[in-house]
Design goal:
With 338 residues, the chain is an alpha/beta fold. The protein contains 15 helices and twelve strands. The protein has an eight-stranded parallel beta sheet. The chain has a two-stranded antiparallel ribbon with strand order 1-12.
């Protein structure tokens, strides 16, 4: 069984690279006004923020991807080195396999070599507080993600079918875990109602992980030639709508905008409409697997450079000012919000 699960981890990576469906984040329907009289100095634009008690270079993290498969250790080694070079946080993929299969643990533990980066662990909603503590200690995590992947589970032949204790499990983990707990979808978005429920359980960090990036329905569909779930590939809450809806509930929660974030303009728009920072997974994986370490590092450097350009064009000097930039909504996003 463990060997099958390790193989599944590798299949997820392979199938992401094969995936073709691209849904819409609707961030293209967020309008930011150009400031022709911007009075900022590009060299003094500050993209850094505080996250989990540390200063990071820009409002971006490498989100949960992998761990446990044969190729995972190499990927996580490169990703953790990139995060250290660039001073941004890194989340590992689900550590569920590491709970039962010691062979897989080094692919996660590699991140412990980087004490100076923000390290985030990851487990599913159905795990106990004991499991979360083990996963936290395995990588000396600064925070833990609890991933909500009901859509993925329902289309997976071997996936879970009983979600009746999901909320109770999350409530217990949130109460007893001694590091922050981040509720994270896996690409289908978190609604206003779900976010309120999570906030009511004491969670202060929410990663909306909306529709627009990797579709795990497609990823799982590619694993099984006997199924066809292509009619469900468009399922989910667009990232832009999820960010706006969750932010409308509270100014006190920390929102991570992810799901189809690819460009500096995506990051700027996500922050303007309510995110505190953004996260990228699939796009970084694609750069790493197709172009290697330096190619990926150049992509992130380019993101930071272009984010500063966008901030200059808006006339803002730092991320707090970016959060206050006026915006307008157009098209389908405006209809959905109103």
């Amino acid at each position: 069984m463990d060997e099958v699960r390790r193989k599944r981890k590798d299949e997820h990576i392979e199938n992401y690279l094969k995936s073709e469906y691209r849904s819409k984040t609707l961030l293209d329907q967020v309008y930011l006004e150009h400031n022709a009289l911007s009075q900022v100095n590009y060299d003094k634009i500050d993209t850094s923020i505080e996250f989990l008690g540390k200063t990071i270079s820009m409002p971006l993290m490498i989100n949960a991807m992998t761990g446990g498969g044969e190729t995972s250790e190499d990927i996580n080694t490169d990703l953790s080195n990139i995060c250290q070079d660039f001073n941004i946080p890194m989340a590992v993929g689900s550590e569920a396999l590491a709970l039962v299969d010691p062979i897989t643990r080094p692919s996660f533990e590699i991140i412990k070599e980087h004490d100076d980066i923000v390290r985030i662990g990851n487990l599913g909603y159905n795990h106990s507080i004991e499991d979360f503590n083990f996963a936290k200690d395995l990588i000396r995590a600064d925070a833990m993600q609890v991933h909500l992947n009901i859509a993925q589970e329902l289309v997976m032949d071997e996936g879970d079918r009983d979600f009746s204790n999901t909320l109770e499990n999350i409530k217990t983990v949130a109460k007893y875990l001694d590091v922050p707990l981040i509720a994270k979808e896996v690409g289908f978005g978190i609604s206003k109602e779900v976010a309120q429920t999570l906030i009511d359980q004491g969670l202060k960090y929410i990663d909306v992980a909306g529709m627009g990036g990797t579709s795990f329905i497609e990823i799982e569909d590619l694993r099984n030639l006997d199924t066809d779930f292509s009619d469900l590939y468009e399922w989910g809450i667009p990232t832009a709508k999820a960010i706006i809806d969750v932010r409308s509930l509270s100014d006190d929660i920390f929102i991570i905008g992810s799901g189809g974030i690819r460009t500096a303009l995506d990051i700027a728009k996500a922050i303007a409409i309510g995110a505190d920072m953004c996260a990228i997974s699939g796009e970084v994986l694609s750069y790493l697997m197709r172009g290697g370490y330096d190619y990926t590092l150049d992509y992130l450097k380019d993101l930071n450079h272009k984010l500063k350009i966008v901030m200059g064009l808006l006339g803002v000097k730092n991320i707090e000012e970016l959060k206050k930039v006026p915006y307008k909504l157009t098209g389908k996003l405006k209809e959905l919000i109103e």
